[in-house]
Design the sequence.
């Protein structure tokens, strides 16, 4: 079996359904001082609750991995707006039963849902995430859009996490991505100062490819428009119907927010707001 840890803040809308989808005997919630009923709902559902001030996503996930009292050596890291499936659980149990000590992490994919539809093309699927982690073998880097790093081997799972990023409404999605764009702008400014890892664009490691592609994308003029064309046209996001079009437009707006914040901070007269 394996443990599950969920990061939360004001996730009363999601946490009950998330926990209900988890068929394991050890569920932990690391909460960033929610002001709603998140912790009460999670505790009533059998989860153990820990609290920590939020500073950034990498630090929060590392803190989650360092929590005491896990009952199992493997931990699945979920967000409250994600759901497990019986097929994913069965695959995890089967793969962990044969995983040797040389394996430190399993990657998996998500199915992003919007307006009742899986965004199979417009979301950039498939993107692989390191989520099933051997305790003591994995650390998390990058403050946003985190990277899970291990010196051990990495496996891949066929089944998916189901992701409902709009469960708290469109307004909350924009509120959250306004915060994300501020953090991403800081990372973007740093990445632009580093050389592009050209060889990694053809790497067999999907994490290395994704990182190199981001480095390249950060330098492209008209980046938000190019991302729209990539997702909606080249990746055939139009085949996801109206949800695909709306999502691609929102993704483009998010990328514009990042670029605007980089430009505003770079040319601001206030040293407090200036990026390196």
Sequence:
């Amino acid at each position: 079996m394996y443990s599950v840890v969920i990061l939360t803040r004001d996730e009363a809308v999601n946490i009950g359904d998330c926990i209900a989808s988890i068929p394991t005997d050890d569920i932990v919630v690391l909460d960033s001082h929610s002001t709603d009923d998140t912790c009460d709902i999670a505790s009533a559902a059998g989860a153990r609750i820990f609290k920590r001030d939020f500073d950034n996503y990498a630090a929060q996930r590392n803190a989650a991995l360092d929590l005491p009292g896990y009952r199992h050596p493997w931990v699945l890291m979920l967000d409250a707006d994600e759901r497990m499936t019986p097929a994913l659980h069965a695959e995890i149990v089967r793969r962990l039963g044969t995983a040797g000590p040389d394996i430190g992490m399993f990657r998996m994919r998500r199915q992003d849902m919007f307006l009742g539809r899986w965004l199979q093309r417009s979301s950039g699927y498939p993107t692989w995430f390191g989520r099933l982690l051997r305790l003591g073998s994995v650390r998390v880097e990058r403050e946003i859009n985190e990277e899970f790093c291990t010196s051990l081997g990495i496996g891949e799972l066929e089944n998916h996490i189901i992701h409902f990023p709009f469960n708290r409404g469109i307004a909350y999605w924009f509120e959250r991505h306004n915060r994300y764009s501020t953090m991403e702008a800081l990372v973007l400014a740093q990445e632009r100062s580093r050389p592009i890892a050209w060889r990694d664009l053809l790497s067999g490691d999907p994490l290395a490819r994704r990182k190199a592609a981001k480095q390249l994308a950060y330098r492209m003029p008209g980046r938000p428009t190019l991302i729209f064309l990539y997702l909606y046209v080249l990746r055939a996001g139009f085949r996801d119907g109206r949800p695909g079009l709306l999502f691609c437009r929102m993704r483009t707006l998010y990328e514009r927010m990042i670029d605007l914040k980089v430009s505003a901070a770079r040319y601001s007269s206030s040293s407090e707001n200036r990026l390196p």
About this structure: Helices lie at 12-20, 38-44, 57-65, 86-98, 170-191, 206-218, 223-234, 241-266. The first strand starts at residue 3 and ends at 8. The chain is about 40% helix and 25% strand.
